[in-house]
Amino acid sequence: MLHTACIMKTKRAAETLAVTTKVVLPNDTNQLGNLFGGQLLAWMDEIAAVSAHRHCRRVVVTVAINNVAFKSPIKLGDIVTLEAKVSRSFTSSMEIFIDVFVEDRITGVKTKSNEAIYNFVAVDQNGSPIEVPELVPESDDEKKRYDGALRRRQLSLIIAGKMKPDDATELKALFSH
Ligand SMILES: CC(C)(COP(=O)(O)OP(=O)(O)OC[C@H]1O[C@@H](n2cnc3c(N)ncnc32)[C@H](O)[C@@H]1OP(=O)(O)O)[C@@H](O)C(=O)NCCC(=O)NCCS
Asked: What is the position in ligand 1's atom list of the atom closest to the CA of 94?
C-alpha cells in the first residue's frame, strides 16, 4: 500500500546531483589489476542512493539495476569520479543515472568509462513505498534522459514480470515509429 508524504513538491534535477571520487586500491582489483566490477557496482549503488535521497529526503532502497556497461577497464591507482542524478521520478520510484569518469593522472583530463541506470524506491518506517516529489528536468541532457525514462521503466517492469508487454504503451510506440 502506498502512503502519501505530508509535504509534496517538485525538485529540480540539478538539486539531486551527487558526486564522489575514489582511488582504486589493491583490494578493489581483480587478477588483472583492474577494478573489480562488483566494487564499481557498490560505489554506483551508494552514490545513486545519495542522489535519490536528495530528491525525496526519505529512506530509499534499490529496486532494480539496469543497463550497466563496463566499456573499458579501470586500473589500479586510477582516480574515479562518479556522478549520479535523478533522471525521472514516478509515484514512489526514481530512475538515477550514474556517469563514471577516470582522470588521467598526468593531464587531469576526465574520460567517461562507464554508465549505469539504477532504480530506487522511497519507503516509510515500515518499508512501504511512499510518494516522492516530481522531478523537473532543465538542461537538454536532463530532458533527454527524462523523456526516455518511461520506456526504460516499462522494459524493466516487463523483465521483472511486473508488467504485461501489452500494457507497455510507450515501448510499443517506439517500435511502431
Ligand atoms: C522496493 C520495495 C519496497 C517495493 O515494494 P513493492 O511492494 O514491491 O512495491 P511496488 O511493486 O508497488 O513497487 C514500488 C515501485 O517500484 C517500482 N518497481 C518495482 N520493480 C521495479 C523494477 N524492476 N524496475 C523499475 N521499477 C520497479 C514500481 O513500478 C513502483 O513504482 P511507482 O510507485 O513509482 O509506480 C520492495 O520490493 C523491497 O523492499 N525490496 C527490497 C529492497 C532492497 O532491500 N534493496 C536492496 C537490495 S540488497
From this structure: 34
For residue 112, being part of any structural domain is answered with: yes
In a domain, 167, yes or no: no
Residue 82: burial class (beta carbons within 10 Å; 0-12, 13-18, 19+): buried
- We report the CATH number of the domain holding residue 123 as 3.10.129.10
Cα 108 from Cα 170, distance rounded (Å) = 41
- How remote is the CA of residue 41 from the centroid of ligand 1, in Å? 19
What is the whole-number distance in angstroms between the Cα of residue 121 and the centre of ligand 1? 6
> How do beta strands 59-70 and 110-123 pair?
antiparallel
Asked whether residue 72 is assigned to any structural domain, the reply reads yes
- Ligand 1 test: best mutation among 58, 63, 150, most atoms within 8 Å of CB? 63
- pTM for the structure as a whole: 0.93
**142 CA to middle of ligand 1, Å?**
23
169 inside domain:
no
Q: Could you tell me the distance, in angstroms and rounded to a whole number, from the CA of residue 149 to the centre of ligand 1?
A: 16
Q: Which domain, by its residues, includes 44?
A: 10-137
Structural domain total, the chain = 1
pLDDT in tens, the chain (177 residues): 565 554 568 999 999 999 999 999 999 999 999 999 999 999 999 999 999 999 999 999 999 998 888 888 999 999 999 999 999 999 999 999 999 999 988 898 999 999 999 999 999 999 999 999 999 999 999 999 999 999 999 999 999 999 999 999 888 887 776
Residue where the block lists cell 532494480: 64
